[in-house]
UniProtKB/TrEMBL annotation:
<dbReference type="Pfam" id="PF04841">
    <property type="entry name" value="Vps16_N"/>
</dbReference>
<feature type="domain" description="Vps16 N-terminal">
    <location>
        <begin position="8"/>
        <end position="412"/>
    </location>
</feature>
<keyword id="KW-0926">Vacuole</keyword>
<dbReference type="InterPro" id="IPR016534">
    <property type="entry name" value="VPS16"/>
</dbReference>
<dbReference type="Pfam" id="PF04840">
    <property type="entry name" value="Vps16_C"/>
</dbReference>
<dbReference type="InterPro" id="IPR006926">
    <property type="entry name" value="Vps16_N"/>
</dbReference>
<dbReference type="InterPro" id="IPR038132">
    <property type="entry name" value="Vps16_C_sf"/>
</dbReference>
<protein>
    <recommendedName>
        <fullName>Protein VACUOLELESS1</fullName>
    </recommendedName>
</protein>
<dbReference type="InterPro" id="IPR036322">
    <property type="entry name" value="WD40_repeat_dom_sf"/>
</dbReference>
<feature type="domain" description="Vps16 C-terminal">
    <location>
        <begin position="509"/>
        <end position="824"/>
    </location>
</feature>
<comment type="function">
    <text>Required for vacuole biogenesis and vacuole enlargment in dividing and expanding cells. Involved in the docking or fusion of prevacuolar vesicles.</text>
</comment>
<dbReference type="InterPro" id="IPR006925">
    <property type="entry name" value="Vps16_C"/>
</dbReference>
<comment type="similarity">
    <text>Belongs to the VPS16 family.</text>
</comment>
<keyword id="KW-0472">Membrane</keyword>
Length: 843
């Protein structure tokens, strides 16, 4: 009998059954759909209602001001607001995928509302042409809209998330279209919006790039209504002679044709899944047409609104909400009258088992081989049921059959129970989201939770997210922010305790984000208390800065050891505070202080000098000045003008004065003084010689250059000024004179007095200049016989080298000299004989 009562509610359309269960008796009062514009969100979403200003209606006990009211699908009022928006008559209204209500008025202005009837700024306009010509029709799809103006122009917003209007190609027709339908971008080859426009006896395909005319004889005559199927593959068309046609989206063949009783276009044309089409006229039954067979009529005595879903149509009336859908195959196999399918026998076996009848075992034996399929059918049928008691019975039948089925997936029933508990919870009239199982799978649990959160159903969202094993942070975060917004009268300390009690439920939750919301709502003290509980410095520190807690932010950043965070705080304080206050904050903290110094050394010398002066570190200022002088020297423009009055000398003088004020830096003070003195002398030399070759050279190079240029007096002056030693002076002068090949002056210099460096440098200078004759003047004066022997060898005088080495009685030296002259046989023989003589003598 149960099977009969279930199947009795079905309607047969050719070979397919349809059912129309009531989801809710609506709780609203005094709502007449015929007097209002209504927008229903898909996937069991909210319903927006506003009085239709294009109709003359009688006002009862209501205000003349129009109100935008938002209800759940069960008719529970969520929110309302007075409609005060300018721009003319409201032309179109629809919900986006993220449940934002889009309202388009005559002048092309787009107003957006959230589910709580709060206006979302800023408003968007479709453009100047829309403002001048007025919008007359809107066609919405999931996340976009196409608008038609009085001048026949088409404007489109392809994505409400971006809100960037664009104009489509002009049709060139003089008359306005009879009807329009939109193919969504995800179903087109080009990836752009395509609009099917019925103009006269033609159908045009319009996009941004151009206009195409549909070819062929599939559609003949005037088209009065069109609608694209949910999957974008089929098109339902109502023609001027009262025919309903279904073609594929490419117009390659007619899949359905039915002659309606009326040639007047229906007020609403909608797909019921992908198997049938619904047509609705006022004061006539709702007509459902399928591919074959007689149509089905549904009788109503009140106005209706059809809300297409992926697996059916929700039917909204003044008093109830119903769901018309094709009966799932699993449900048909169980409840069809006279069904003997394995699933029906399993369902019947459970009934016999409950009545303690032996026929239960007989039924199980009959379907033993098909038992897994029967169990699966019962589970699937339970998922498609809206009636909770029927869900329970079907799951019990599946569980009963599973007990005798060894190779069935054991957690299948558990998964379906989980899904149904979630669906039943959101279907509750107080929540009012009548999702089917197919819609739930398409929507996904995460989106469902987001919608519950958006509707402020935080407790249910939290329980569902916990139940299905999803992260609860999003729910708790949204609850905390909503609580702060709604709790203006609660003191900060009490509200903090309430928030912490819930926030601690989710490990790793961002206290900083909640604190930021508190600060945005003007509760800075609460924000400061909340951010103290944030464990992640990377989120804590920026918020502390935004609420003016710079000192705490610097302390937290320092404790974290993250140099990037410390730099973030330093730059923030640097911009906001006075220099002395900034210096005081970082002076006692080593890490921020050192990081600031490292950065300022590279980019902010002047500011760093102020810091060192404020902290009494004069030597550091002096080092900076000295460094600046060197940097200035690298600038080619710095050599122009006199260094005596130029910036380099001044910088070095300042550095010297600062070094002089500290006892520990006497050396640096003296070095700076001598550096300045050297620069002055070098500049004088460049002025007198008119050659820019002295500045920034060393003392030794300066002396050498003076001698090379023949300016011996200047060289002596540099020697005297900088107390150059005699040995160094002789070395420099010897090689400078050799460089100029002034051999006479070199000989004269060697005879002035006994050189403190000996005569070896004279010999080396001559040899390096390849003047062996000049070298012979000094080799005999070498006191060390070994040096004399090596000097003779360098100029190729083997006999003299051998004699000197023999006098030195150094056998090893003779061996080395032999190697030097190994190409000369006579010389090699001489060295061998001398070494043998020394060996004989026992030396």
């Amino acid at each position: 009998m149960a099977n009969v009562s279930v199947a009795a509610e079905w309607q047969l359309l050719y070979n397919r059954y349809y059912r129309k269960p009531e989801l809710y008796p609506l709780r609203w009062k005094n709502i007449d759909l015929s007097r209002n514009k209504v927008a229903c969100a898909p996937f069991g979403g909210p319903i927006a209602v506003i009085r239709d200003d294009s109709k003359i209606v009688q006002l009862y006990s209501e205000s003349a001001l129009r109100k935008l009211r938002i209800f759940t699908s069960s008719g529970v009022l969520i929110s309302d607001t007075v409609w005060k928006n300018p721009g003319g008559r409201l032309i179109g209204m629809s919900w986006t995928e993220d449940q934002t209500l889009i309202c388009i008025v005559q002048d092309g202005t787009v107003y957006r509302y959230n589910i709580h009837a709060e206006l979302i700024e800023p408003n968007v306009t479709l453009g100047k042409e829309c403002f001048e010509q007025n919008v007359v029709e809107c066609v919405f799809w999931g996340n976009g809209v196409v608008c038609l103006t009085e001048g026949g122009l088409l404007f489109c917003i392809p994505d409400f998330k971006v809100m960037r209007p664009c104009q489509l190609a002009e049709t060139g027709a003089e008359d306005l279209p009879n009807c329009m339908a939109v193919i969504e971008p995800k179903y087109t080859v080009s990836g752009n919006v395509e609009v099917l426009v019925g103009i006269g006896d033609r159908i045009l395909i319009v996009d941004e790039d151009g206009v195409q005319t549909v070819e062929g004889e599939v559609v003949q005559g005037l088209v009065q209504k069109m609608v694209v199927s949910w999957d974008g593959k089929f098109l339902a068309i109502f023609t001027h002679d009262g025919r309903i046609l279904v073609t594929d989206i490419n117009f390659k063949g007619v899949l359905l044709e039915y002659n309606c009783e009326s040639a007047l276009p229906p007020e609403q044309l909608a797909w019921c899944g992908l198997d049938s089409v619904l047509l609705y006229w006022d004061d006539t039954p709702l007509l459902m047409v399928g591919p074959r067979g007689d149509p089905v009529h549904y009788f109503y005595d009140e106005p209706l609104l059809l809300i297409p879903e992926c697996d059916g149509v929700r039917i909204l009336s003044n008093t109830s909400l119903e769901f018309l859908q094709r009966v799932p195959d699993s449900t048909v196999s169980i409840f069809k009258i006279g069904s003997t399918s394995p699933a029906a026998l399993l369902y019947d076996a459970l009934d016999h088992f409950d009545r303690r009848s032996a026929k239960a075992d007989e039924n199980l034996r009959l379907i033993q081989k098909s038992l897994p399929e029967a169990v699966e059918a019962c589970i699937d049928a339970a998922g498609h049921e809206f009636d909770v008691s029927r869900q329970r019975t079907l799951l019990r039948a599946a569980s009963y059959g599973q007990a005798f089925c060894s190779n069935f997936q054991r957690d299948r029933i558990q998964e379906m129970c989980k899904t149904l508990r979630v669906l039943n919870a959101v279907r509750d009239p107080e929540i009012g989201i009548p999702l089917s199982i197919n819609q739930y799978k398409l929507l996904t649990p995460s989106v469902l939770i987001a919608r519950l959160v958006n509707a402020h159903c935080h407790l249910l969202a939290l329980r569902i997210s916990e139940y299905v094993g999803m992260n609860q942070e999003v729910v708790i975060m949204h609850w905390a922010c909503s609580k702060i917004t709604a709790s203006l009268a609660i003191p900060d300390a009490a509200l903090l305790e309430i928030l912490l009690d819930k926030l601690k439920l989710c490990r790793g939750i961002s206290y900083a984000a909640v604190a930021a919301h508190a600060d945005k709502n003007g509760r800075r003290k609460l924000a400061a208390m909340l951010v103290e509980h944030e464990p992640r410095s990377s989120k804590q520190v920026p918020l502390l800065l935004s609420i003016g807690e710079e000192d705490t932010a610097l302390m937290k950043a320092t404790e974290s050891g993250d140099t990037d965070l410390v730099y973030l705080v330093l730059f923030h304080i640097w911009q906001k505070k006075q220099p002395l206050e900034f210096f005081g904050m970082i002076q006692a903290r080593p890490l921020p202080r050192d990081l600031f110094i490292s950065y300022a050394r590279c980019y902010k010398h002047e500011f760093l000098k102020d810091f060192f002066l404020s902290t009494g570190q004069l030597q550091e200022v002096a080092f900076l000045l000295w460094k600046e002088s060197w940097e200035l020297g690298k600038n080619p423009m710095a050599s122009k003008g006199s260094p005596l009055h130029g910036p380099r000398i001044k910088l070095i003088d300042k550095a010297q004065n600062l070094f002089a004020e500290t006892k520990e830096h006497t050396f640096e003070s003296k070095a700076a003084e001598e550096h300045a003195k050297l620069l002055r002398i070098q500049h004088e030399l460049e002025v007198s010689t008119k050659q820019a070759i002295f500045v920034d050279s060393s003392i030794s190079d300066t002396i050498r250059t003076c001698i090379v240029l023949g300016n011996h007096r200047a060289a002596m002056k540099v020697k005297t000024e900088f107390k150059v030693s005699e040995k160094r002076w002789y070395w420099l002068k010897v090689f400078a004179l050799a460089t100029t090949r002034d051999w006479e002056a070199l000989e004269k210099f060697s005879k002035e007095k006994r050189p403190p460096i000996g005569y070896r440098p004279f010999v080396e200078a001559c040899v390096d200049a390849d003047e062996k004759g000049e070298a012979l003047k000094y080799i005999p004066k070498l006191a060390d016989l070994r040096e004399r022997a090596e000097a003779y060898a360098r100029i190729g005088m083997a006999k003299e080298a051998a004699d000197a080495a023999s006098q030195a009685k150094d056998g090893e030296l003779l061996g080395r000299l032999k190697l030097t002259f190994q190409q000369n046989a006579a010389a090699s023989s001489l060295f061998d004989s001398l070494r043998d003589r020394l060996s004989f003598q026992g030396v």
